[in-house]
Amino acid sequence: MTIDSFWQGFLAHANLPATTTYYDSFHFCNSKELANELLKLVLSGQKTATTSILIAYEIEGEPMPQVGNYSIVTDWDGTPHCVIQTTAITIMPFNEMTYVICKREGEDECLETWVESHRRAFEYEGQELGFQFTKDMPILFEDFKVVYKR
């Protein structure tokens, strides 16, 4: 199934105008195993949030997500599985994250594992995009809900 046909199915299901657009079509993480694992967490309702590093939007010239945006979540191979809608955006320094907040990502048993995995991911992204990750860099925490499944 293509992204476009999946999106058209969602628009018909939700009775939204054909001119309605989506913010992004993406998979989580930079490995097949993690991308597909996180997709399963989204589909099960365990993962209802995600975190990104704020500077990446500026470097890549991409708009930040906004409350109300729709996005299509795919597996690693690009097959669409669901549409999510952003319900809240929180911008905060990386080192001010709490477990009460990050547990909505559904991936970690404690704050320490969240910090370690996200630090590694943001350091890798910094190498790719040309910035140096620091513990006080602003992050964008995005809450979402699944509004359509394949």
Question: What does it look like?
Answer:
The chain has 150 residues and is of the alpha+beta class. It has a single domain, classed as Sulfate adenylyltransferase. 37% of the residues lie in helices and 26% in strands. The chain has helices at 3-14, 32-44, 54-60, 99-102, 111-129, and strands at residues 24-26, 49-53, 70-74, 80-93, 138-149. The protein has a five-stranded mixed sheet. The longest helix is centred in the last third of the chain and has 19 residues, at 111-129. The N and C termini lie close together (10 Å).
Number of strands: 5
Assess the beta-strand content as a share of residues.
25-35%
- Overall average residue pLDDT: 96
Say what the CATH topology is: Sulfate adenylyltransferase
Write down the domain tally: 1
Biggest sheet strand order reads 1-3-4-5-2
- 3D shape: globular
Please, how many helices?
5
CATH architecture classification name: Roll
